[in-house]
Model the fold of this input.
Amino acid sequence: MEGGRSAFATTQWTRVLEARGESPEAKVALSDLCAAYYAPVFAFIRRSARNDDSARDLTQEFFARILARHGIDSVDPTRGRFRSFLLGAVKHFLADMHDHANRIKRGSGQTHEPLDSGTDTSPGLHLADANAADPEREFDRKWALTVLDRALSGLEAEHRTGGKTEQFNKLKPWLTGDAGNLSQADAALALGLNEGAVKVAIHRLRRRFRELVKEEIGQTLRDASQISNELDCLMAALVER
Done:
């Protein structure tokens, strides 16, 4: 909250939903979201692609179709979550690619837009390994990691703007869980602070990181009341099974 104004008053996803792809601003918002959440889609598609190159080509084609064909025009705004929309859309896309490949094999003679994802007329799909990780769980895990990475990058940018890059770099291990045997006393000495000040700085760093994670989640929701539930989903996605 800043000046009594909610950080989630106007999110990218809200702008996209309201404009439904008609305004330049909405197209930019959708483009930004697609670029930001490329990794979860790639992880999901990789489960069905024959190799990394095929998966990358299919992922690029998926996002190209979303951006070029007003892919959200029929989305139900009451569902709200960009994550849910994106997962449903990529499932539909892969099913369409599978049907496309089957039609070509049957020699239907129908004309389709080219997909440069394979070395032949197939879009590069194959039967998934039944023993591989669940694709939806991998999608959610990549989504969660992307959210955390974007929040961490935002936190680093704030410290850089405030001239506190060194402090961020020294205290970051206590935020990411990489502190190990690092001593807060040594960090305090390196920063010219007392140990108590370092403890306070770490507390503030963690608190601000949590705020940025919630803000990042809010960017992909229509309703801010869903943030708590989506945060629970994010934490669950990071738990190893």
User: Anything to note?
Assistant: The chain is about 65% helix and 0% strand.
